[in-house]
């Protein structure tokens, strides 16, 4: 990318070269300062801005590299072909292809970069309500029309705004659903990240309250703790945070809901991941205890790879599994007829509804964001599910 900037700025925009260098120096200084001083030293808006800057620069450099790489590959093929064939006579002054190629590369790079900027400014809090109706032959008649909201991947440590969250929680409460199910990743790393948002999320209301589980980020596994005890204390405070929110945290256990003498079970397990070697804290054998004779079961399991990894092969009586975790990579294309995201190269089930036989899996696209502080194509989601008797 530096080569392209040099060639373009050499003509008229010499200031562009110095602006590019200054931004690089600033971003790398922020990166090393963050690693040395830790996240608590910087305001959240600074960390978010630096993260966005790194991501945008990475994408821009990648696009420019690809253009130059393809051009070089073409030249190598042409040169080889000409060497093997008859000599060519070249007349006239050489055409300055480098400057043209640099402009083209920077122009191509501008398209995804502008899309990513739009994803930060507009789409980070552009919540979408996805409505799903599922029919089951074994759903007790008393639960025909049972509705719930699924939330997932709040990642409170990434938020830089509060009003959009307040507004969407009011919309969720207005639905007056039977229960709200949260499928993990309340924080990025530390329980303290949730403190500024307690008075917002404790406003969530449903007839049977809010039930929740843990995600892979909730254990503090991705930061360096001073002592093992500090990490344990953080997780104990995490558990208390759910109680303070008024949420029922299910740690490899279940809750039975009853209507007119009929029952369904909601199971929740700790994080269990098959893809990318994510930890397997979940214990299904504990979660199912007491549900053997209940005809309909919903499982909350953060990582969708658990569905193929354990649920379907060993627990055929789990009717519906709810997951999150992937965020749909926060980037992709999603229309009525076409759905694509880099996430699909890692996860077979990465966004939306899936069915195998009589069992269903729904993968929520996530409420918050992580790393890149925005979304392109794959927007933040609130899932509204209605259960019907088949």
What report would you give on this structure?
The chain is an alpha/beta fold and 390 residues long. The chain folds into 2 domains: 2-123; 128-389, Purple Acid Phosphatase, chain A, domain 2. Helices cover 38% and strands 18% of the residues. The protein has 9 helices and 14 strands. The chain has helices at 2-9, 14-37, 44-84, 97-123, 163-174, 198-201, 228-245, 284-287, 305-314; strands at 128-136, 146-151, 179-182, 210-212, 247-249, 253-259, 262-268, 297-300, 320-323, 333-334, 339-340, 352-356, 359-363, 381-389. Strands 1-14-2-3-4-5 form a 6-stranded mixed β-sheet. Helix 6 (198-201) links the parallel strand 3 and strand 4 (210-212). Helix 2 crosses helix 3 (44-84) and helix 3 (44-84) packs antiparallel against helix 4 (97-123). It is globular. The model has no long low-confidence stretch (mean pLDDT 86).
Structure characteristics:
390 residues, alpha/beta, Purple Acid Phosphatase, chain A, domain 2, 2 domains, six-stranded mixed sheet, globular
């Amino acid at each position: 990318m530096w080569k392209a900037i040099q060639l373009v700025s050499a003509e008229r925009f010499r200031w562009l070269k110095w602006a590019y260098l200054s931004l690089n120096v600033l971003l790398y200084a922020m990166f090393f300062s963050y690693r040395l001083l830790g996240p608590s030293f910087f305001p959240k808006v600074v960390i978010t801005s630096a993260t966005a800057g790194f991501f945008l620069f990475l994408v821009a450099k990648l696009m420019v590299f690809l253009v130059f790489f393809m051009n070089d590959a073409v030249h190598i093929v042409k040169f080889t072909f000409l060497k093997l064939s008859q000599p060519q006579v070249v007349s006239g002054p050489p055409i300055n292809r480098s400057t043209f190629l640099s402009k083209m590369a920077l122009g191509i790079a501008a398209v995804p970069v502008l899309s990513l900027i739009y994803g930060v400014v507009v789409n980070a809090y552009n919540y979408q309500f996805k409505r799903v109706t599922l029919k089951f032959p074994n759903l007790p008649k008393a639960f025909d029309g049972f509705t719930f909201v699924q939330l997932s991947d709040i990642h409170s440590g990434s938020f830089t705004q509060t009003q959009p969250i307040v507004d969407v929680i009011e919309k969720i409460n207005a639905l007056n659903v039977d229960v709200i199910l949260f499928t993990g990743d309340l924080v990025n790393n530390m329980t303290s990240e949730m403190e500024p948002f307690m008075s917002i999320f404790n406003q969530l209301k449903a007839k049977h309250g809010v039930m929740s589980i843990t995600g892979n980020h909730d254990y503090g596994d991705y930061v360096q703790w001073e002592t093992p005890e500090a990490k344990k204390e953080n997780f104990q405070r995490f558990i208390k945070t759910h109680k303070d929110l008024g949420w029922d945290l299910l740690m490899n256990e279940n809750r039975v809901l009853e209507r007119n003498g009929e029952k369904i079970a909601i199971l929740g397990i700790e994080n269990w991941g098959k893809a990318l070697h994510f930890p397997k804290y979940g214990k299904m054998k504990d979660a199912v205890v007491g549900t053997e004779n209940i005809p309909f079961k919903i499982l909350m399991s953060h990582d969708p790879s658990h569905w193929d990894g354990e649920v379907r092969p060993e627990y055929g009586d789990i009717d519906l599994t709810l997951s999150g975790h992937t965020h749909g990579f926060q980037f992709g294309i999603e229309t009525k007829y076409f759905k694509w995201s880099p996430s699909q190269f890692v996860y077979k089930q990465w966004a939306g509804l899936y069915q195998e036989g009589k069992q269903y899996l729904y993968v929520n696209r996530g409420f918050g964001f992580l790393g890149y502080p925005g979304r392109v194509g794959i927007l933040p989601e609130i899932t509204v599910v209605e259960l019907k008797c088949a």
